[in-house]
Amino acid sequence: MYDLHRKNQKKQETTMSVPWRLCCGIGRAALTPTVRPVYLLRCFYRTMHFSTEERGQPGSTDYRLYFKRGDGKYISPFHDIPLCVEMNEDGDSPAKKSRTNGIEKVFNMVVEVPRWTNAKMEIATKESLNPIKQDTKKGKLRHVANIFPHKGYIWNYGALPQTWEDPHHTDKETGCCGDNDPIDVCEIGSKVCSRGEVIQVKVLGVLALIDEGETDWKVIAINVEDSEADKFSDIDDVRKYKPGYLEATVNWLKLYKVPSGNPENQFGFNGEFKDKMFAHNIISATHEYWKKLILKQVDGGSINCKNTASRDNPFWCSEDDARALVECAPPPSTATGPAQPEVEVWHFLNK
């Protein structure tokens, strides 16, 4: 399974196109990407290219996946990739219409974990430039268990850039503080994405997971390039066109830690999925928390906010400094880590 992912990642040559525009306006003058119209979801976008660069040995604790702009300059996927996709800026094409709410808002998503894989990859929020790495516990690489009948993650799993679930803020909806990470996304489209891929998604709803007493929102979204994307406008469309997927999502999130000896996770709203409008409001709030974080208006603790967007923010990092940070990482390796037998085990649990 791991070798298949590596093959797919090389196949895409780790190059993506995503729209250029920082939602909060930080550093817009400092970003000078090549601009070209892209026909996507019947809209025109200003785009910039991103690529990824592997460092260290895959399947080891020193593996890192760094992000670069098309001009080769290193960036942070947490802070430098814009949250929102701006549509119809050139006025040459009508924007995509939502069936329920006029213009469809589209977001950038950073894919951390491709569907059907087990390695618990994540944006390293405490490291400079926030590369993707594999999470560890007590020095051991973490993998999610296979909960019958599933293999690994059941969606393309990742995060929305420029969002932050503030651990100092008690969420009025759940009564719990944030989990100190970007907001998570479960992408339900047909394509199995690659690690580090940046895709454009439309949000359909959200689920409030309570993980060890912290609010851990799970946004449900679909890739706008999915062949069936036009069918989906809100959370009820998932029930209609992908029956059983939402129920499987709740069960997976409730049980995935049980094989390692942990209790079942809990949910806000009794495990009820909230609709698109509710999800947009949650995303907007986490973006505001991120803005305060990046402008040093709140204590971010151990969160690393280095970014290359603009000299005007207190965490700005020059391109030379960014390159030096990456060059200090272990060199890329074609070898892979030892086999992990636990990823081949199925766990049969009462649901």
What is this entry, summarized?
The protein has 351 residues and is α+β, with helices and mostly antiparallel strands. It is 16% helix and 27% strand. The chain starts with a helix and ends with a strand.
Can you walk through the features of this model?
The structure is a single chain. The chain is of the alpha+beta class and 351 residues long. Helices cover 16% and strands 27% of the residues. It has helices spanning 2-11, 235-241, 245-255, 276-294, 319-327; strands at 15-19, 37-40, 43-55, 64-69, 74-75, 84-85, 97-98, 102-103, 106-113, 121-123, 132-134, 136-137, 140-141, 146-147, 156-159, 177-178, 184-187, 198-211, 214-223, 266-267, 346-347. The strands form six sheets. Strands 1, 2, 3, 4 and 5 form a five-stranded antiparallel β-sheet that branches. A five-stranded mixed barrel has the order 9-15-17-19-18. Strand 10 and strand 11 form a beta hairpin. The protein starts with a helix and ends with a strand.
